[in-house]
Amino acid sequence: MSPPRGPLSQLRRGHEELVLGLLRKHGPLSRGELGKLCRLSRTTLYDILAELVATGAVVPAGQQDDGPRGRGRPAETLALNPGAGQAIGIDFARRALHVAAVNLAHEIVGAASEPHDADLPWERRVDLAERLIGRLGGGDLRLGALSAIGAGVVGPISDPDGGPDGDIESDFENDIEAGEPLPHRAQVLLRERFGVPVLLDNNTRLAALGEAIWGAAAGGRDVLYLRLSHGVGGGLVIDGSLHRGAYGLSGEFGHIVVDPGGRPCSCGGTGCLETVASVRAVLDAYRDRGGHADDVRDLVEAAGRAEPGALALLAEVGADIGAVLAALCNAVGPGVIVIGGELAETGAALLEPIGRTLDARVMPISRHRVSLRRATLGEAAGALGGIALVLHESPLLSRYPAGPDLAAGVPPLSPRHHNLVKEGS
Questions:
Q1: Count of CB atoms situated within 10 Å of the CB of 177
Q2: Distance CA 370, CA 172 (A)
């Protein structure tokens, strides 16, 4: 059966979040202290606390002296259980899977990644996700206390519900299987496996969210994030809020044309930024010029030893990237630009040409007000963004669709899939 979503269940969830938020902010509190802070009735508060203790989300933290209590025992205090898993983030990248988890105190308890073939079936991707999640926190993560999972997938996600009637697109190979959009298939498989709502969004936009909360752009109110990986995409934070755009299609920077006479792109266009600045495009161009590189690591090493062919290519690619970013800067006026993805590992060899082009093309009035930075969260950025989407506590999400209700369009679980994953599995 699907999780209840009526007014009473939503009210109860709100009460639970209120209590958890107070414990997160103030630390261990007695029931009396919680009652004064939350202003719920004694009956409601005790009922909520009983449920939270029963699920392992809240645990006794000892006793304290609340002042004069006659001959009674000191009041018992309650605290968040740091071992209780509350939120999981998953990034289904093209050729790798990344997971991260936070506990109820919003502390990151672990992150893990593993590469895979681009055509790995979704069932096996979800198997891999379950295995990686099982390793987080030393295998002690309490999956039974999960509230939701935030998952990122490649390509535009025009309906965050991921429901069967949503207009979902993805540029994964073999986009449709048995008539069902693959991102929706992933969402259903995850719900079946873990028994909780699953929020779905574009993985690069989630990476932008992660960098804007915990990473290189933390605290920035106007941020442009660009990820240079096997695909090229990004995200925008505008006036302190993550921007989805109409139908959730914001951030497709990789499909801005840089060479009208260039190569065909997977989107159906020609000469898009992705055709010159994706991992495959850059490595192919380097090999065409006589360079030897099996992967990005080889290119990074070539740039590090100042190999002329690598530096020349990265200068050209950086100029194309900088031209796109300059146009975006003149349009939306970010204060911070963050460059992430595997190609960012080439460091100054790529970022300096980007910076030079920005200096040349951004309007003089604003060019010195834009800070160009390299991403700091690495492969975990998208998964951490998925967690932020679930928790929905960052001001960056103030204008974003809220909470596990995003999963409302997903068909209910069949009874045989309703059981939660056992702890440590």
A1: 12
A2: 34
Q: Which residues contact 106 (CB under 8 A, 6 or more apart)?
A: 24, 391, 393
Strands 336-340 and 371-374: parallel
Phi, psi of 98 (to 5 degrees): -125, 135
User: Comparing C-alpha atoms, which of 384, 387, 393 is closest to residue 150?
Assistant: 387
Q: Give the pLDDT score at 18.
A: 85
CB distance 337 to 324 below 8 Å:
no
Report the distance separating Cα 176 and Cα 117, nearest Å: 18
Give me the amino acid identity at 229: S
Residue 245 backbone zone (phi > 0: left; psi -120 to 50: alpha; other: beta): left
Residues 361 and 208: their CA atoms lie apart, in Å, by 24
pLDDT of 369-410, one tens digit each? 999 999 999 989 999 999 988 877 677 887 787 655 444 444
Burial of 396 per CB tally in 10 Å (0-12, 13-18, 19+): buried
The alpha carbon of residue 146 and the mean position of all alpha carbons in its chain are separated, in whole angstroms, by 17
C-alpha to C-alpha distance for 310 and 283, rounded to whole angstroms: 10
Q: Look up residue 167 and give its two tokens.
A: 């207009």
Reduced to 3 states, what is the DSSP secondary structure of residue 243? coil
CA angle 275, 94, 91 (to 5 degrees): 125
Task: Tell me the DSSP string of 377-404.
Answer: SGGGHHHHHHHHHHH--SGGGTTSPPSG
